[in-house]
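Predict fold of B box-type domain-containing protein; 253 aa.
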Amino acid sequence: MINGLFCNGLQGIQKPAWLEALYTQKFFVSCSIHETAKKNEKNILCLDCCTSICPHCLQFHRFHRLVQVRRYVYHDVVRLEDLEKLIDCSNVQAYTINSAKVVFIKKRPQNRQFKGSGNYCTSCDRSLQEPYIHCSLGCKVDFLLKHNKDLSPYLRTCHSLQLSPDFLVPPDMGEDEMTNETPHSTIVDCDEPMSSSSGSSGSENMSMMCTEIVRKKRSGLYVCGRSVSKVSEEDMATSMSRRKGIPHRSPLC
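Predicted 3D structure, encoded as tokens:
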């Protein structure tokens, strides 16, 4: 790669790195960096880093050129307005979604070729409307590289490209979710000291708290915040004797 351009073969065919990334990067997959965060689909391409990112990655790319990738009939598309700042998109058929014109990134070959009059894509023979001859940006690039051997006349200089105003940034997550930390537990461990004005009273309170947890968690799931398999029979007997005392039977008549 030289000055952000890929050189293919010995004929000096040049393709910008961002265009190669737009065609090869995977979008609408979970971001490995923010895999535990909500709305972590990678739907943005950073043209300066040539990589796909998710909305949570924006803070690290806020000064870079960014373009949003959208989905239309299960294919990746980009707004025509954004692409035209980077490359000549003439003769590429555009489609309208949400009041915005978009262009398919990759070619969409049809299962069977239609015969008859009309316009067809130069690369994948897809039926097109007049006067278009390319069904996607990838088809036009392939056509230009095949016939002209160079994309330079069709590339445009773009020093700044920001996301469109309709791009939705996920609302701020909670502090625990943003730092991927587990929230602190509210259960107090019996082995940890508990702050109190009186040491003896604090120990008594802790003992009463542990006893209460034993009573409520008779099933043996948790005892004082620690996981156990079951409460021993000896502890159960001791607890029962403290509450009710030793039972006495009436003498037989």
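The longest helix spans residues 199-216.
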